[in-house]
Amino acid sequence: MLKSKFALFAFLRQTGFAALLLTAAVLSACGEAGEPPRAEAESLDGERMSTVTGTYSWGGVEADSEAPPELIRSEKVHDFVPKGGLRLEFEGEEPFQISAGLIDMENPQGAAIPVGVDGTTLTLPKEPGYYALQVKGVWKNDDYASYALSIRIVES
Hints:
Keywords: Signal. This is Lipoprotein. Residues 1-18 form the signal peptide. The structure is a single chain. By secondary structure, the chain is of the alpha+beta class. It is 20% helix and 40% strand. The relative contact order is 0.21. The chain is built from three helices and twelve strands; from the N terminus they run H-H-E-E-E-E-H-E-E-E-E-E-E-E-E. The chain has two domains: 1-30, no CATH class; 34-153, Immunoglobulin-like, CATH 2.60.40. The chain has helices at 2-14, 17-29, 68-72, and strands at residues 39-43, 48-50, 52-58, 61-63, 78-80, 85-90, 97-104, 113-114, 116-118, 121-123, 129-138, 144-153. The strands form two sheets. Strands 3, 4, 5, 7, 8, 11 and 12 form a seven-stranded mixed sheet that branches. Strands 2-1-6-10-9 form a five-stranded antiparallel sheet, with no helix packed on it. It starts with a helix and ends with a strand. The radius of gyration is 21 Å and the shape is globular.
């Protein structure tokens, strides 16, 4: 019995089974095939928030979604102070480019309000209101994904 275990191990070593396991581990860290990585946000005071994945093009798979205001309409609203901020955390590799904007939930057809982006840290504007935060990430291979979060900027 012991001899057969060693034979099996030797076989797996010779066939590159370890390389196969490593490849599977790397792929699983990047999300499922054809799906972008999940993203979470954390306020600067430590509150963790889940984002909703929107439109994306990932590994040859394209998916369209509703506009951010519709994506977050039934999600929990997270309160921020004017000029507050949050950090984004992506499962696996981070995008090399991130852009973000706020869509006013009372006027979703209006122009988006720019959000300051520094790496994965976002700085919100000072205008109070209820917003859909839209974030777009672009990765090195031109894959992209958008994410949405329901936020309210409250007067301090």
